[in-house]
Amino acid sequence: MELFELTQDFRVKNKFQNVPVSFITDDSRKVAPGCVFVCIRGKRFDGHDAAPEAEKAGAAAIVCEHSVGCKNELIVDDSRTAFALMCAAYFGHPAKRLRLIAVTGTNGKTTTSFLIKEALDALGVKAGLIGTVKNMIGFEEEPSALTTPESFALNELFLRMADAGCEYCVMEVSSQALAQGRVAGCEFDISIFSNLTQDHLDYHGTFGAYAAAKAQLFTQTKKAVLNLDDPYWKLMSDSCSGETVTYSVRDPADYTATCIKMLQTRVEYDLLYQKEKAHVNVGIPGGFSVYNSLAAIAALLELGFDCDAVIAAIGKVRGVKGRIEVVPTDTPYAVIIDYAHTPDGLKNILTAVRPITKGRLLTVFGCGGDRDKTKRPKMAKTAAELSDMLFVTSDNPRTEDPDAIIKDILAGLDGSTVPVHVDPDRTESIRAALREAKAGDTVILAGKGHETYQILAGGKIHYDEREIVRGILDGTV
Q1: Rg of the chain over all Cα atoms, to the nearest angstrom
Q2: CB of 263 within 8 A of CB of 278?
Q3: DSSP state of 459
Q4: Which residues pair with 277 in a beta bridge?
Q5: Among 3.90.1150.10, 3.40.50.720, 3.40.1390.10, 1.20.120.530, what is the CATH number of 3-88?
Q6: Which of 310, 312, 325, 319 is nearest to 284 (CA)?
Q7: Which residues, 6+ apart, have CB-to-CB distance to 435 below 8 Å?
Q8: Which residues of 4-35 are buried (b: 16+ CB within 10 A; e: fewer)?
């Protein structure tokens, strides 16, 4: 492939030499003879500083936002966007061979994506999945490193999906991915907005910047499916380049859930749309299951699928690993694992489980290190308001002192009378919660969810809460 072929979708400000290209990378450690090195400015490292070394290592061209003194440099307005567009061209624009469905928002992205993917499976339509828990090409699964992959890996995934015969790709699109232009050049057939609450302020700085990053998705979508019950739906609607439809459980919308029943193992409701009514049964408990399934159904109906077939397909889905996941135990109390790691996420899981809990709610949680510190006391306040006892511990402390993180958490408990057990050792906190639990209680293990690891100062270790619970109960841990 020649360099000129990779630059057709963006403007280059200067003249450059058209040369054969073997590879594209934004990682200076991966530079090899004949590749294109794209200089990207990050928070900790500026790729422009590595340009001379990349040229010495054999890079055939350097893409940059200002001159770096190299022989064959391409000066562009935004190197992140240029990188995404070059990656798409390098793989032959594979996204154009797929119908793309995007889900964004603070909470609900993973479950909504899985609902759509599994419904498509049941409808006999081959689809791919990109998200937090895993990636899938049809029924083939593989680990996921990022919610939304970097541009090169993303387009490589698109290509593999298209070559495997996938018609659709359902993907979670994160705010960081949008801010970094990873999905630049993608045109989404449907984009769903779930909700917006505090998260990732360590990256975005302000809530306004976080919201603006989410809104970017809707500038490149044909049709938006928006949660009318979230105040930020209007920002997403105003940003949308195509049509918009809404869904709600509170007010009349294009898709409205009424007559909602919260049961121990499922939710049921009546769906009102286009002057029609249909009964929906979803095998995942909790109020947020109404929102997630409503969004998924709306998206599939807007894509032209039959309503009865879609509702039947949604009714077969039984949940996502790490999202209100019931751990099998022979105990008179329940143990539930959930990924809740934001104040709103914690509120959602606790309010979902409270109506189906006869006894007490015992909540084990911590907060991630090297991440937004302002949400720590807010999570504690939420947990204290909705739980009967707290077990404050570590999540993924990373390079931060676990005791310092816990101190930030405990600051949110001033004035609270809820009993609190504190231990930075997560296993010991879980052991204490299980020892405390009595018949009819529910133990919530919040924060880790689908993760089977813990990130400590020394690196990542294997840590699966399912194994920990079983080990504690059978005496091997």
Answers
A1: 24
A2: no
A3: E
A4: 272
A5: 3.40.1390.10
A6: 319
A7: none
A8: eebbeebebeeebeeeebebbbbebeebeeeb
Block residue for tokens 């790729």: 47
pLDDT of amino acid 344: 85
- For range 71-88, the mean pLDDT: 97
In contact, 415 and 331? CB cutoff 8 Å:
no
Residue located via tokens 């990256």: 203
- CATH class, range 94-314: alpha beta
pLDDT digits (tens, 9 = 90+) for 15-66: 999 999 999 999 999 999 999 999 999 888 999 999 999 999 999 999 999 9
Question: Which fold would CATH assign to domain 325-474?
Answer: Protein-Tyrosine Phosphatase; Chain A (3.90.190)
Q: Is there a contact between 454 and 461 (Cβ–Cβ < 8 Å)?
A: yes
Decide if pLDDT at 411 tops 70: yes
Give the DSSP H/E element, type plus range, for residue 3. helix 3-6
Question: What three-state secondary structure class fits 279?
Answer: strand
The pair of three-digit structure tokens given for residue 109, joined into one six-digit string:
């992205």
The secondary structure of residue 108, as a DSSP letter, is: S
pLDDT at 118: 95
Q: What DSSP character marks residue 355?
A: G
Assign 400 to helix, strand or coil. coil
Q: What is d(CA 36, CA 56) in angstroms, rounded to the nearest whole number?
A: 12
Q: Are 339 and 450 in contact (CB under 8 A)?
A: yes
- Cβ contact 348:340 at 8 Å: yes
Domain ranges in the chain are 3-88, 94-314, 325-474
Q: For the chain, what's the residue count?
A: 477
Residue 80: both structure tokens together:
């992140």
CA distances 23 to 32, 51, 163, 209, 261, Å, are 8, 16, 20, 33, 54
101: amino acid identity, one letter: I
One fold for both 3-88 and 94-314?
Answer: no
